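protien #1 (seq + structre)
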Amino acid sequence: MTEKISRASRETAVASGSAAAAAAPVILSNERGSFAWGVLAKRHPALIQQVRDAFPYGRRQHEALDALLDESSNGVVEPLAPEEPDHGRWADWGRGHFGRSWYDAPFLWAESYFYRRLLAAVGYFGTGPWQGVDPFAPFKQAELRGEAVEEELRALDALADAPAGERATALLHASLWGNRADLGFRASGESPAGEVATSALVADDSAALWQLLPAGASATVAVVADNAGRELIPDLILIDHLLEHRHAERVVLHVKPYPYYVSDAMTADVVDCLRRLTEAPGEAGRIGGRLWKGMAAGSLEVRTHSFFCAPLPYEEMPEDLRKEFAGVTLTILKGDLNYRRLVGDRLWDATTSFAELTAYFPGPVAALRTLKSDVIAGLQQGTLDDLERSGAAWRTSGTHALIQVRK
């Protein structure tokens, strides 16, 4: 299903993508019962309560959380307080949205702004005692200590002596599916779980991904992480495979600079996951040890950038980040949010060319994504017809996934 696009034709593809965008409306949250509406109306209020319960916050934090709950549920969008360090940037990004209902703002912007306002409410960027305290840390840590992670790490032992190709497929699927505990690290096609992993792919360009990363090449791979915990551990294990089997000479792992979208990975989460691996017995511990040494040697580097917490598509990435991605062999974008930012958070016709929508990206790019929102592109018509006939909420339920590559 790989869609190829040469450098010479990229300009034409960008123009085609722009034309497609004109016919694809930006996703809003004002349609009652829609997925986007449910996030703002149900998920965000529940998250405020979970954060409130997770910490012994003082009166100021509780009052600020109450105000955010009331505003985001019933009021209009208010600007970030002037004392917040990035007030100016958000004032610019939010121009045209302030003073309007949260539900009438673009879904991507409203989600991003909600999380930024949540950090303001708990004093994350303030000068008080809650400065720098991740409000989502208890959720991440509980997941990392859970029995599901233990089982998945034990499953690595059975895969240690598998042929390289079989191991590569299993670890790619584990990274793709992230926190699907029923899949773990089992090899594709070797078990019922593996068969589910393959049949639930709505697009599979994995062959093109491995073609870009042949063993023995001096490749540099950028991996833009999504979630911490049970999703970041499979990402790290896949990175170890790339380095150990010489699919990459160097991997740069990009993470968020501050807490974002509940479970998004930061540097502290990378360290927590590496410690979890190194403390495990068997193959997991060996992988953790190699990655720990790789950090010191420079074969694995962790970086971050403020753009990763911006409510903007990758098409608007700053020049320094563009140069970073232009200088690597392949950029792998993990997760649903990165996909939305890669192709644009719009109601595309699902058969719109993935290659054309990503033609602006400054180098080869791969998307590994479990479907958890309405955005989708690059499907074959027959695949789309089968999915639509199924009657399932395949776009948003997390039951389907994709691997899409633009060379």
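ok now protien #2
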Amino acid sequence: MPMSMEEYEIGLSYTIMKMEQQNTNSKEGVEVLQQVPFEDEKLGKGQFISKDYHLHSKIPSWMKGFAPASALTVHEDSWCAYPNSRTVIKCPLFSKCSLTNGTVVRPDNGCSENAHNLTREQLAAREVEIIDIAASVSRDYWSKVIGAPNVDLTTFESQKTNRGPLLKGWMDSCRPVMTTYKLVIMDAPIWGLGERLEDCIIAGERALFLACHRLCFAWIDEWYGMTLDQIREMERQTDLLLKKVRTC
């Protein structure tokens, strides 16, 4: 990302809030259940956030064949202690399945070989994928459902920061620059369905990562200069707004 770690914390929070607002209405969307401080030996101090995602219209048709859409609500628990976080996503219908997403943010251009301090066995099983926010957006199922932004970051230039356009090799030449390292682990021990479910969910996560981070930079002129206190107040107001919209 073409920004500092301090900027990224604010920009990502702003982007998530705006995306949640855009995707929430009286029928479906994001429901914030709990947001409280936590302290963990590994992560440190931060915020625990619990959410339900009622995104029934976005579920693939083949998955809806197993149950009514109302049973496909996705539950998310997140422990956010920036620059590190851990998120666990589950769906009550597939109680044996879970997706764990660990995040480490570093002020580099993606050169860290083992940001998550994996063991030798974990490194051997790991598959690495580099997501370049300036790359062309795929038009696969999840990209269309998420509404992947069509902004061209190879021509976009921020008016407030003069950053961009993101041309070939920008990760090596751009300053400031930082990288968010995601460790995604999908476990779906369901005979006859597990592999297809894993592929589907991983593809969805990839599309969401790309869309969210493209928008984070595309909206930089909206959030640049804001403080963390302002972001936290916006989060409180957004939670109230989402509850109001969902109950209408």
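The chain has eight helices and six strands.
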